[in-house]
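W.,

You were right to be curious about this one. When I first looked at the sequence I had no strong expectations either way, so I just let the prediction run and decided to look at it fresh. Below is the sequence, 312 residues in total, followed by the output.
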Amino acid sequence: MICAVPQSPDPGIATAASPYVGRFAPSPTGLLHAGSLVAALASWLDARAHGGRWLVRIEDIDPPRCQPGADMAILGQLAACGLLPDEEPVWQSRRGALYEAAVEQLKASGLAYPCGCTRKDIEAAWDRLGWIHERHVERPYPGTCRDGLHGKSPRAWRFALDHFAGHHPVLRWQDRRMGAQQQDVIHSVGDFVLRRADGLWAYQLAVVVDDGLQGVTHVVRGADLADNTPRQMLLQRALGLPAPQYLHTPLVLMPDGEKLSKQHGAPALDLSVPLATLRTAATHLGLPQPSPQTALGEALQFWVRSWRHTYN
């Protein structure tokens, strides 16, 4: 049995009355790989440790990058590992009206403005400012359209960071694994996109709206998404949504040190022996390898003992 969870909760496990709601939100640009499973397992374990609900959300708001059938295949991969959501999954591609309403709310508050910049325009502005592009470092939006389109046609919508953050652009938060974090969002990122020039919704907006409407209280995801947290927290404040607690898990790296990802050709999970695949994911999280008799239950007990001090 793959998913043998203890029938009587450990004293450190929250009761079923816990308001905890967690989620795993894969993008169907390909099948789950080893890094994806680490994040999924950690998210599932944390929800079970709190006695809470665990949701799955398919983040398919970028149709050109999505692979046909990958969404259902991902759900099958999770099921094969015993990671079953407590509610029916939702698809972001079906929630456009909710994102539209959020942008209209931001417009009405003066927190969203149209941007007519092309990629070439932005790169030219960077060059004029002398901003050198460092590998893996995001250059901030230079604010070209912040005070008007200057004859350009609107292409995208951006969040007015300076208007919202004012003289306090440094956002601080506490990550349950990485500890105290901070980011100067204006100087590190700039006014980020809410709706893209091609009409598609931006990830930052969609994830904040969905987390808020689904009542997500705890987000457990890979450390590569940690630098998104400040943008999402600012949007939560602007939209009047509560901020979840965050825990960012260690990444699975390739031999050259790059993050294991679909973009870098990460192979799909080998689920011919699901328990062996789970053992590998558990080891990466610093958990004992599940035995055939206890499987996820053993990992759950260890997760509770390891992370009890981070619970609220």
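Here's what jumped out at me. The radius of gyration is 21 Å. And, maybe more interesting for your project: The mean pLDDT is 85.

Coffee later to discuss?

I.
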